Amino acid sequence: MVEPVLSRRLVLEEVIGTSDGAGGIVRTWSTMGVLWAQVRAGSGREKAADFVTLSSMSYRITVRAAPPGAPSRPKPEQRFREGARIFRILAVSEAGSDGRYLTCFAQEELAA
User: Fold this and answer.
1) In sequence order, which ranges of the chain are alpha helices (DSSP H)?
2) How many whole angstroms separate alpha carbon 99 and alpha carbon 3?
3) What is the CA radius of gyration of the chain?
4) What H or E segment, with its residue span, contains residue 38?
5) What is the pTM for the complete model shown?
6) Distances in Å between the alpha carbon of 67 and those of 47, 75, 79, 108?
7) How far apart are CA 96 and CA 102, in angstroms?
8) Are 88 and 106 in contact (CB under 8 A)?
9) Are 20 and 1 within 8 A, CB to CB?
10) pLDDT tens sequence for the chain (112 residues)
């Protein structure tokens, strides 16, 4: 495996649901940490909906591995944020046989 170049600063976030006092739930995003990553674009697509065009791009985001259960270990349903850009994590796997890195399969969506 070629060593990844971890040159992008991404914020790892997890959704937190709290009661709104009226029987509903308010969803907010909480910062779990900052990770340095290699971000590689995959395929993209465009889908038209009611008065909106949704552009979707897949990414492979490589970060240093953290032990299972550690708050800094990415997992599905979390997201990476880079400024205004949001990368929703779909799946995570170990990269290489030595387990020093994780590959996060993510998706970025933009409405146009």
Assistant:
1) none
2) 12
3) 16
4) strand 25-49
5) 0.84
6) 38, 12, 18, 26
7) 9
8) yes
9) no
10) 688 999 999 999 999 988 888 888 888 999 999 999 999 998 877 777 777 767 888 999 999 999 888 989 999 999 999 999 999 999 999 987 788 999 999 999 776 5
